[in-house]
Write a structure and sequence with these properties.
351 residues, alpha+beta, Transferase(Phosphotransferase), domain 1, 2 domains, two-stranded antiparallel ribbon, globular, binds adenosine-5'-triphosphate
Length: 351
C-alpha cells in the first residue's frame, strides 16, 4: 500500500471514530436527561411541568401536583422576595413543597429563570435546598422546592413581630457551620463551580431539625472551573455586598465569603444588616461593629441573648468573621477554609 493510501485510511478511521463517539455521547446524554426528569405538558393551561427524579417525586402523580399547584391562593403565601412570592403547597399530610412564583415580565427574568434551573437541577447536598421541579407557562414560572418548615434564619432572628424564637449559641454555631458547608460545596465541589451572589440570612433556610440549608439560586451564576470570576448584572443585597463589588460589578467566590462574614456578624450581634437604622446613621453593620470593637467595647456588640455562653467560642467566630470581611478579597479565606476553622472551634471546645 502506498503512503497516500495509508494516510487516507488513517484519516477515514479517525473521522469515523470521531463521528461514532459523538453519536454515542449524544445518545448517552439524551438518556441521562430523560432519566433525570419527567416532562408533562398540561393541555388546559398550555404550561409545562418538569419534575426532577428523586425518591420523593417518583411517588408523586404529576396530575395531582399540577392540580394542587393551580389551586394555590394568597392564603398559602409563606413569604415574598425580590423575585416573586413563595407559597406552601400541601399534597397530603406527609408531602409539602415551597413553590416560588416568578412573574414573567421581561426577557431578562426569563434568562434568570433558566439560569436558576441549570444551576439547581443537578445540585444535591444536605445543606442546599433541593429544587424538585418547575412549571412554566407564557405568563409565569413556578419553581418547586423542598419545604423548609422553620423558615429562614432572617425570620427566626428578626421576625416582623420580634424574633420567632431566641436562638441559643449552640444553635447559632450549628447554623454557621452547616450554611458554610453548603456554600463551600457550591464553590468547590460542584462542577461547574457556583457563585451564589446573594448570601444573606433570608437565603439560609432551616429544616425541621433547625439544620441550615442554602437556598435561592435565582442570582447564581455558573463559573467555569478555570475562571476566577464572572461578569454579571448588578445584583445582591445592600448590607451584605463586598466593597469591591460596587467598583467592579463582578461577582466572585470571595464576594460570597464576604457576605457570609456579614451573616456571621448577624448571628453574633443579633442585628439585621439591612436595618433602616444603619441607613439612617449612614453606616452598616460591618462598619458599626468594627467601630465598637476598635473602641474596645466588644461587650456592646454581642447579642445579649448570648451572654451566658462560652465567650471564647463566640470570639473565635468573631475572628473568622473578620477574616471573611477583609477589604482585600485575596486575603479572605476560601469557604473550604472557613468550614475547617468553624469546625475546629467545636473540636477545641469539646477537648
Ligand atoms: N423552600 C422554602 N421553604 C420554606 N420557606 C421558604 C422557602 N423558600 C423561601 N421561603 C420563605 O419565603 C421567603 C422569601 O423567599 P425568597 O427567596 O423569594 O426571597 P428572599 O430570599 O427573602 O429575597 P430575595 O428574593 O431578594 O432573595 C423567605 O424569606 C422564606 O421565609
Amino acid at each position: 500500500m502506498g503512503n497516500s493510501k495509508v494516510v487516507a485510511l488513517y484519516i477515514t478511521i479517525c473521522v469515523v471514530s470521531f463521528v461514532v463517539s459523538k453519536i454515542i455521547m449524544a445518545i448517552l446524554c439524551y438518556r441521562r436527561c430523560r432519566r433525570k426528569q419527567m416532562v408533562v405538558q398540561d393541555s388546559l393551561s398550555g404550561g409545562t411541568l418538569v419534575m426532577f427524579k428523586s425518591s420523593k417525586m417518583d411517588t408523586l402523580k404529576s396530575n395531582m401536583l399540577l392540580k394542587k399547584t393551580m389551586k394555590l391562593t394568597n392564603k398559602d403565601i409563606i413569604g415574598s422576595g425580590g423575585y416573586g412570592t413563595v407559597y406552601k403547597l400541601t399534597i397530603d399530610e406527609s408531602t409539602s413543597f415551597a413553590v416560588k412564583r416568578l412573574n414573567r415580565i421581561s426577557a431578562e427574568q426569563d434568562r434568570g429563570f433558566e439560569r436558576e434551573l441549570v444551576a439547581m437541577g443537578d445540585i444535591k447536598h444536605r445543606n442546599i435546598v433541593t429544587l424538585h421541579g418547575y412549571y412554566s407557562t407564557n405568563h409565569y414560572n413556578l419553581l418547586i422546592y423542598e419545604l423548609m418548615p422553620n423558615g429562614s434564619l432572617d425570620q427566626v432572628l428578626h421576625g416582623k413581630s420580634g424574633p420567632r424564637k431566641v436562638l441559643d449559641w449552640p444553635s447559632r454555631y450549628k447554623i454557621a457551620v452547616l450554611a458554610a458547608r453548603g456554600l463551600s460545596y457550591l464553590h468547590h465541589d460542584c462542577i461547574p463551580h457556583v457563585i451564589h451572589r446573594d448570601i444573606k440570612s433570608s437565603n439560609i433556610l432551616l429544616d425541621h431539625n433547625m439544620e441550615a440549608r442554602v437556598s435561592d439560586f435565582g442570582l447564581a451564576t455558573l463559573m467555569e472551573p478555570d475562571k476566577t470570576h464572572v461578569s454579571t448584572l448588578v445584583a445582591g443585597t445592600f448590607g451584605y455586598l463586598a466593597p469591591e463589588y460596587f467598583d467592579t460589578g463582578k461577582a466572585t467566590a470571595k464576594g460570597d465569603v464576604y457576605s457570609f462574614g456579614v451573616v456571621l456578624l448577624e448571628l453574633l450581634t443579633g442585628r439585621k444588616p439591612t436595618d433602616e437604622s444603619f441607613l439612617e446613621e449612614g453606616t452598616k453593620l460591618v462598619t458599626w461593629v468594627k467601630a465598637v470593637v476598635q473602641e474596645k467595647r466588644e461587650e456592646y456588640v454581642v447579642d445579649r441573648n448570648l451572654e451566658e455562653f462560652p465567650i471564647e467560642e463566640i470570639n473565635h467566630v468573631f475572628t473568622i468573621a473578620w477574616m471573611c470581611l477583609e477589604a482585600e478579597p485575596c486575603i479572605r479565606p476560601t469557604m473550604a477554609e472557613v468550614v475547617k476553622m468553624l469546625e475546629q472551634i467545636k473540636v477545641n471546645a469539646l477537648a
